[in-house]
Design brief:
By secondary structure, the chain is of the alpha/beta class. The chain is 63% helix and 11% strand. Strand 7, helix 21 and strand 8 form a beta-alpha-beta unit.
């Protein structure tokens, strides 16, 4: 049994994964070491009280002599004060180190999060992300270190108290240690019991945060559609799931402390029975026995409640395991070995027998073949869900093709470094994401070190001058989270100005005007026309009136190219799909 407990400790996450944690602990090794070393005297001082009772009982209670023991009460007071001061210092150092480590891990995780591919975000909601990349780090680092302090204190306390036990009676000490190991044995099964619940708990906690995020972002939808009951019922259901998980955790682990309490009580009973015999036979003194019982109770009392603390430690360890799984995971979209920088595109972009699917055996693009000359404007039209957005999402490698290849001047884009590839592509979406901050800060995302002249040209090209001039703070106007203080057209033009600054040779316009009214669309379309000059442009459009002047219009239906040509060529095609769509929109 003792061997099994030791093996469990050896196989614990901290020991087996020390090499993963150490780089984060290393910068703070000195403080962390001091915090651990302080627990030695904190724990060991518990033995002073128990040890002092032997001379007190034998000399004062039995021999009725107080002269030689008058220092004992003072000694206890001094040691208690010192213990309290050391305990505060250890708590402070543990908190300082824990939060520093947590911040360093969060920084690495945040960097990792930004480099995950689009498929990862397709599978996880915002609550999952916050739980996995933030909350689990706090649970792992702060929770583990605070519980580590408690455990190390109790370990040294236990060792010193066991020393007192053997000092007073080796016979009673052997019984006490055997009972101690028996009480600790149930802890060896705890990790396995918690593993499944922990994974489900992460999902449910993430779902709770998603409800809050959705309520924040969708507050106007909730209000306008009177969705209060609907949203509340969804929230209640998630809380009900969390409640069930909490109850299941108690069912699986709640008996640990009662079992340990019962085993400890058996130990105390056995010690009292054997101790009485040893006193009667004069093998130990009354002082030995009182000192022993005091040390034993001080040793056993924390053990009876250690199940709850050990539970918390295991949850912290499982959180740490989750964190390091994220850190070690490799995104699907990465640079190939010996990838080269993309300097520019001189001749053509070619889709060569490209196939793609989000879900296995459910193709979204089927054998796409298309060649685009540099400087051309290509319009992608067709039925909703036909694969148009997927077509352009493959260019910056948001996803990788399942088969076939996309070629820049005959070279597979997967052979280029990701950063250099994406530097050559600017995208204006239908709903462009703007960061909380100022208009200037959002435009500068296209080029962080842009000069005032470059910013002015971008603003002019995006038809933002009149709007900027009407603001008291001009470019330094705060726009709120996600640009909530701006209209749709204003947000689009800021995104276009950002694309101007990036000055990429390829521009993707993903239904950039479809959500705008006619007046806003006219202004934004002018800005788009400016952006398109001297660039290779991919336009996704539902309004066919916006693609008349495209060099080539490609009709994609159900993942296949069914027609391609100029506007006039497609209109003249008998029973053509494009001609039919165009006539439908005119009527």
């Amino acid at each position: 049994m003792f061997k099994k407990i030791i093996n469990k400790i050896k196989s614990s996450y901290i020991i087996s994964n020390y090499s993963k944690i150490y780089p984060y602990v290393k910068p703070y090794t000195f403080r962390a070491l001091i915090a651990v070393l302080i627990t030695i005297p904190i724990g060991s001082m518990d033995a002073v009280i128990a040890w002092s009772l032997k001379p007190y009982m034998d000399i004062v209670m039995v021999e009725k002599n107080t002269a030689s023991t008058s220092f004992i009460p003072l000694l206890i007071i001094v040691f208690s004060v010192l213990q309290s001061l050391l305990n505060y210092t250890a708590t402070y150092l543990n908190t300082w180190v824990g939060r520093k480590i947590a911040n360093d891990v969060k920084i690495d995780l945040f960097y990792k999060l930004m480099h995950y591919d689009a498929n990862f975000f397709d599978k996880h909601n915002s609550g999952d992300i916050q739980q996995m990349f933030n909350n689990n780090v706090d649970a792992a680092c702060n929770g583990l270190l605070s519980n580590l302090k408690l455990f190390t204190t109790r370990v040294f306390s236990s060792l010193s108290l066991i020393g007192v036990l053997f000092y007073n009676s080796w016979q009673l000490a052997i019984v006490a240690v055997i009972v101690l190991l028996g009480a600790l044995y149930p802890l060896t099964t705890l990790r396995r019991k918690l593993k499944t619940i922990f994974n489900k708990n992460i999902f449910s906690c993430g779902l709770v945060m998603t409800h809050y995020n959705e309520t924040y972002s969708g507050n106007r939808i909730i209000t306008s559609y009177n969705l209060y009951e609907y949203q509340l019922n969804r929230f209640k259901e998630t809380l009900r799931t969390l409640f069930k998980l909490g109850i299941k955790m108690i069912q699986r682990t709640g008996m640990l402390s009662p079992i340990m309490h019962f085993v400890v009580s058996l130990g105390i009973a056995a010690v009292i029975w054997l101790g009485s015999y040893l006193i009667v036979t004069h093998q130990i003194t009354a002082g030995n026995f009182v000192s022993f019982i005091t040390a034993l109770i001080m040793l056993y009392n924390p053990i009876k409640s250690i199940g709850n603390n050990y539970n918390a430690v295991q949850m912290s360890l499982l959180a740490m395991e989750s964190v390091f799984n994220l850190l070690e995971a490799t995104p699907t979209i990465i640079n190939r070995p010996n990838a080269k920088a993309l300097k520019g595109i001189n001749n053509s972009i070619e889709y060569k027998d490209v196939c793609f699917e989000y879900v296995k055996n459910k193709p979204v693009l089927k054998h796409i073949n298309l060649k685009i000359n540099v400087g051309q404007t290509i319009a992608l039209v067709g039925n909703s869900g036909g694969g148009k957005t997927t077509f352009v999402n493959l260019l910056p490698r948001f996803y990788d093709v399942k088969s076939g290849a996309i070629l820049f001047d005959g070279a597979d884009i997967r052979d280029f470094e990701l950063n250099s590839l994406r530097d050559k592509i600017a995208i204006v979406f239908q709903d462009n994401f703007l960061f909380a901050g100022t208009i200037r800060e959002n435009i500068l995302l296209g080029k962080e070190n842009a000069t005032s002249e470059e910013i002015a040209r971008a603003v002019k090209g995006a038809c933002l001058e009149e709007f900027i001039d009407s603001l008291d703070n001009g470019l330094d106007t705060q726009i709120g989270e996600r640009g909530v203080l701006l209209s749709g057209g204003q947000k689009q033009r800021i995104a276009i100005a950002r694309a101007f600054l990036k000055n990429a040779p390829i521009v993707i316009l993903d239904e950039a005007t479809s959500a705008l009214d006619n007046k806003s669309e006219a202004v934004v379309q002018e800005a788009i026309d400016n952006l398109m000059k001297d660039r290779t442009v991919f336009i996704i459009a539902h309004r066919l009136s916006t693609v008349h002047n495209a060099d080539k219009i490609v009709v994609i239906n159900y993942g296949e190219i069914v027609e391609s040509g100029t506007h006039q060529e497609l209109l003249n095609k008998e029973n053509g799909i494009y001609a039919s769509l165009y006539k439908t929109q005119l009527t």
